[in-house]
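Write out a sequence, fold above all:
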Amino acid sequence: MALGCIADELSDEIAEYHQKLVPLIFSLLNDGTMEIVKYACSALEAILEGLGDAIKQYLPQLMERLVVLLDSGSIEVKPIALAAIGSAAHSSGDDFAPYFDEVVKRVKQAMALTGDDVLALRGVATDTAGTLAESVGKDAFRPHLEETMKLALEGMEIESSNMRDCGFCYFGVMSRVFKEEFSQYLQFIAPHLIRTFKADESSAFGFTQTSEDMDDDEDADFNVSTAVADEKEVAADAAGELFASTGAGFLPYLEATTEELVELLDHYSDSTRKSAMIALFTFIRTINKMSSPEQWQPGVPV
């Protein structure tokens, strides 16, 4: 667990020791104690992010073991194993192609799971679908786009901020991969963006307050759901990515989205405010790019 935490913060530095660390973690993946396997997967996921080309030597053994864990591991281990597979795909790029068909099949199965006990796995699967698309490219992933989009949109209807976070991340990545071709799905995504931006952050705790309560409670302003705040942050990031990637296809939703992002500039969460500001700057840059501006020349216009 400690190794995983260090690798999260210092991935490049930890990657220098991969020849010693990765074989040790591989041996732990075969441990009979699922708690140990779970932490070994987490550490492996973090280390893989910084491996780059060095991952090639481990890929066959790595994928063989991780797929077994994904198929037969405990419900706690499966999401971590799938996340590690996503990290492997991210680091290996084109070299992941031989494993793509088997992995994407399992990803779609996980994206269709129902029940509270499998939401974590379904969320990781949604994230991993985007990672796979970036790794293998749009041509290889196109046969799976429609089905994964359908499953991701169904996941957005589940009452779970984490599922919506994963969905927004997936939409942003897919728009980056497929560009203008992704515009056909914006009519389904835009309502989810607006709904999240307008979400009441106090309702998630299931309480109501009277005016007397508000007067007596010095911390009334802090009775909010940080999960919904995080969801708004991720949605703002996705909005910027969607417009930058799809261009004119996003124009029908630009005004309503802009109005909501401006409202978020007063949000209590600094990270949510930051994401809203970045999205608005992205909107400005995209509009400018679409207007075919003249090349800027140094000096003041006479």
User: Anything to note?
Assistant: Residues 12 and 278 are 27 Å apart (CA to CA). The chain is about 70% helix and 0% strand. The radius of gyration is 22 Å.
